[in-house]
From TrEMBL:
It is a single-pass type II membrane protein. The lineage of its organism: Eukaryota, Metazoa, Chordata, Craniata, Vertebrata. 3'-phosphoadenylyl sulfate binds at residues 109-113, 190, 198, 315-319. Belongs to the sulfotransferase 1 family. Pfam families: Sulfotransfer_1. This is Sulfotransferase. Keywords: Disulfide bond, Glycoprotein, Golgi apparatus, Membrane, Signal-anchor, Transferase, Transmembrane, Transmembrane helix. SUPFAM superfamilies: P-loop containing nucleoside triphosphate hydrolases. It comes from Myotis brandtii. It is found in: Golgi apparatus membrane.
Amino acid sequence: MGIAHGWRVQLLQRKPLPQTLAARCPTSCCVGSTQTVGWSPMSWQAFPRLLFQTVPATPLAAAQEKAEGATSQEEQSPEAPDSPSPISSFFSGSGSKQLPQAIIIGVKKGGTRALLEFLRVHPDVRAVGAEPHFFDRSYDKGLAWYRDLMPRTLDGQITMEKTPSYFVTREAPARISAMSKDTKLIVVVRDPVTRAISDYTQTLSKRPDIPTFESLTFKNRSTGLIDTSWSAIQIGIYAKHLEHWLRHFPLSQMLFVSGERLISDPAGELGRVQDFLGLKRIITDKHFYFNKTKGFPCLKKAEGSSKPHCLGKTKGRTHPDIDPEVVRRLREFYRPFNRKFYQMTGHDFGWD
Ligand SMILES: Nc1ncnc2c1ncn2[C@@H]1O[C@H](COP(=O)(O)OS(=O)(=O)O)[C@@H](OP(=O)(O)O)[C@H]1O
């Protein structure tokens, strides 16, 4: 821990002065500038126990939730440090703690850690490392508690956090809007089928004895009925979750980042994110290299360091092979929801 503290002190002292924030980006920098046009392809009642339940709906779902520790929580890893220590806060001296002006609200396993770690390279971004889970689990602790988790910022710096479970938390949109209706929201989305397998892979790594992905996917395998109460499946119904956010925020205040492009073209996606946040485009392709061993883009220099940095071993896991017929059935299941999501956001993510 002593080393970590020393590192952070050095980091804070080396932080350059903030850049002047560019003017707020125009709507066109966000994916999809068109508002939702009336959509009612099916009643959501058609999906019993589909969303936002807090009680596991099936023994299998319960098994997974139990394995995940009630609700999923990102494993702590070197790239997810805790909020600044009292020592670093003492040395950081200047600046003050602000409520976040921008939040990465989802989606779980979408690539949220990669996005936050890449953004932290920007001198005008300060972010809390660990997931605060304020708007889903700790709301009763109050905004003063939440603000105290944040790092200190100087004028012109943006405070950020990421908690991917907010995207599927029914109360989160109203709560974030009550904090500030100007909050900018970033959602990293990924092919829902791959996302579900990634989610399952994480649970499997903690509980190797859980049932197979194939058996968890179906309520009844012979009829092919998908178990939409399984969180790994329901999180991927992005259109449904987005509906709730659009009741509280205009689409222009949301940015949808492609989890796939964050891997294939991290600088391109970071360009869009910097525009959206009104930041000067400082993070460019010069900041990244492709690490063949990791199989992912990594930072040439992490924040406050001169060394190359890849995300930890819990990011970029090898997924188990899934029965292609089950994958096909899942693709079929998600297709209408994906199409609706493309329509709502004005962007085709190319998952179908
Ligand atoms: N650069 C880089 N390095 C490593 N991993 C990367 C990167 N960019 C995106 N990803 C993908 O991020 C996936 C994990 O997503 P999250 O960070 O959102 O997961 S979590 O919800 O916070 O647990 C993770 O999912 P898995 O591959 O299933 O492990 C990765 O595919």
